[in-house]
Amino acid sequence: MTTMRQPREISVTEASRRGVAGLVADAEQGEDLLVTRHHRPVAAVVSASRLGEMEAAAEDLRDLALVLARSASDNGRRTSFDDVLAAFGHTHESLAAIEDDD
Q1: Within a 13 Å sphere around the CA of 97, how many CA atoms are in the beta-carbon half?
Q2: What does the pLDDT look like over 60-89, one tens digit per residue?
């Protein structure tokens, strides 16, 4: 699981002085950098593994939000697959008869 950590803030001027190689070296060592202009965040430099962790965490949060929304709106009523097929005018046999578009 991704842990929260405070990135080190650097100005655009300092980032320019460090150059891409310096910023990448910091990211490779696990340091998150927040590049600011006039004390406002404009960019972040993180390692590829850190980016992967953040993307996985975002996916987990989307899944959690879906579970919570479904849980909050669940009335206990369930609909069988056969009822859904019937509502759309199909049966198991009519679905099996549909040819694939391969």
Answers
A1: 5
A2: 999 999 999 999 998 888 899 999 999 999
Please state the pTM of the whole predicted model.
Answer: 0.61
Residue 95 resides in a domain: no
What number of other Cβ atoms are within 10 A of residue 17's Cβ?
10
- How does 59-77 read in b/e, with b if 16+ C-beta sit within 10 Å? eeeeeeeeeeeeeeeeeee
The answer as to whether 100 is a domain residue is no
Q: Would residue 69 count as lying in a domain?
A: yes
Does residue 51 lie in a domain region?
yes
